[in-house]
UniProtKB/TrEMBL annotation:
Coiled coil segments of this chain: none
InterPro entries (UniProt xref): Glyco_trans_2-like (IPR001173), Glycosyltr_2/OpgH_subfam (IPR050321), Nucleotide-diphossugar_trans (IPR029044)
Protein name: Glycosyltransferase 2-like domain-containing protein
Top-level taxon: Bacteria
Transmembrane segments: 240-266, 272-290, 302-321, 368-392
Sequence ranges assigned to domain Glycosyltransferase 2-like in this UniProt record: 77-262
Provenance organism: Puniceibacterium antarcticum
Lineage, opening ranks: Bacteria, Pseudomonadati, Pseudomonadota, Alphaproteobacteria, Rhodobacterales
Mode of membrane association: Multi-pass membrane protein
Length: 413
């Protein structure tokens, strides 16, 4: 989609001649893949510049900093667009209008996905819930966090904050916290200005969610004094908004779920710790259902869309729970680029093994849970729900992948 993205930028009616497009590539080792992009950029005149650099430190954050350093001295704002996104013809005009209208130092547009209409309504709705809920809370406090693509940021603000940092795997959200701390205002603009691609399998969607959850929790822990500290200079509304956004993908159910299952398997179903674990799992399920249901009802979504969104959130719950636990345990992660390749892979349609293991263990525990009371039984059944949710979500992604495969040539160019 790189060339398609650049073509959509090239076809724009530029508001003025000061715009420059820098294509930064630090993830393509094969010259046969990046040379055509370089050639295309070189043939477009001074507006387009192509930068290729190997062994970039700091992953995406490092690449962004290189591009920032290479930008023109007279540039006032930096726009980030991922390679798999194709922006609308009025993207730059919409960005300029949003900045002027709000007076913000940076704006964030929602992420949307091409060719998903009618196939991934539930998955789309589950992802959109973040923007319709958490990002709008951030907008109300003028402290919206960046989400990595389709964001427009004042270059002076970026330089004042020291550029992007590779200390977390969500460098965009971490940058957003530092922008807020430095006194810059950020707004969320609820207008679709570009579409990219979703991961094509549940396995890859889980990897993406793991990075989002772990990276945002890393950011929260890194900036805990700013967000929750007594001496923080941020007003309460901004701190609440930052907290809401950084915890949107978290799930604390992994350890309680393990305690519950182990307790039931070892005959300790009536132990207070097991009951406490079951209560935590049950309340976690309730919070998950409430967020999706509340958003769906307020947006008057169809019942099928709401159920699909619930399935998607349930299917991704183990990945979010694992990311939350791993990060709290001090595990460090490397930035991993989300696979958006539609190449044939027999594993694309498979349900991740952890869902099958969870279902099998919960079924084994069901008789003991039945005799342990409503809360324990409900918590055990909720653990079983992740498997059918994963099956439904995986089937939707398979349909989506099949549709995009028909457009494979366009996608790869």
């Amino acid at each position: 989609m790189v060339i398609k993205t650049l073509q959509s930028l090239d076809e724009q009616n530029w508001p003025h001649s000061g715009y420059e497009v820098i294509v930064m590539d630090n993830n393509t080792a094969d010259p046969e893949l990046w040379r055509p992009v370089e050639k295309w950029c070189n043939g477009r005149g001074p507006t387009f510049r192509y930068l290729h650099q190997d062994d970039v430190k700091g992953a995406k954050a490092g690449a962004l900093n290189i591009a920032l350093a290479q930008s023109r001295s007279e540039a006032t704002h930096v726009v980030t667009v991922d390679a798999d996104y194709q922006v609308s013809a009025d993207f730059l005009k919409a960005s300029q209008s949003a900045l002027t209208r709000t007076g913000a130092d940076y704006v964030q547009f929602p992420q949307a996905y091409a060719h998903s209409q009618g196939r991934l309504k539930g998955v789309d709705a589950e992802l959109e819930e973040y923007f319709r809920s958490s990002a709008e809370v951030g907008d109300g406090a003028e402290s919206v966090l960046l989400t990595g693509t389709l964001c427009v940021v004042s270059k002076a603000a970026l330089i004042a904050c020291g550029g992007w940092s590779g200390r977390t795997t969500t460098e965009d959200a971490e940058m957003g916290v530092r922008l807020c701390q430095a006194g810059f205002s950020g707004r969320y603009i609820s207008q679709v200005v570009g579409m990219g691609y979703l991961p094509f399998s549940l396995r890859d969607l889980e990897k993406q969610r793991h990075r989002w959850a772990s990276g945002n929790l890393q950011t929260l822990l890194l900036h805990l004094p700013i967000i929750l500290g007594c001496k923080s200079s941020l007003p309460s509304r901004k701190r609440i908004a930052l907290l809401a956004q950084l915890t949107a993908w978290l799930n604390v159910s992994l350890l309680p779920a393990l305690v519950l299952l182990i307790g039931l398997l070892t005959g300790a179903a009536n132990n207070f710790v097991v009951l406490l674990a079951a209560t935590t799992v049950f309340l976690g399920l309730g919070e998950l259902v409430w967020r999706i249901l509340d958003r769906g009802l307020r947006d008057r979504q169809a019942l099928g869309t709401i159920l699909g969104a619930l399935a998607s959130r349930l299917a991704l719950a183990p990945a979010s729970a694992s990311a939350t636990f791993d990060t709290m345990a001090g595990r460090r992660f490397q930035f991993v680029v989300t696979d958006k390749c539609v190449a044939t892979d027999a594993d694309h349609g498979r349900i991740p093994v952890q869902h099958t293991i969870m279902l099998a263990l919960a079924l084994l525990c069901l008789p003991a849970a039945y005799h342990a009371g409503f809360v324990v039984l409900a918590a055990t059944i909720s653990l079983m729900l992740t498997w059918p949710a994963a099956a439904l979500t995986s089937a939707q992604l398979k349909s989506y992948r099949k549709a995009v495969t028909g457009l494979k040539q366009e996608f790869m160019t």
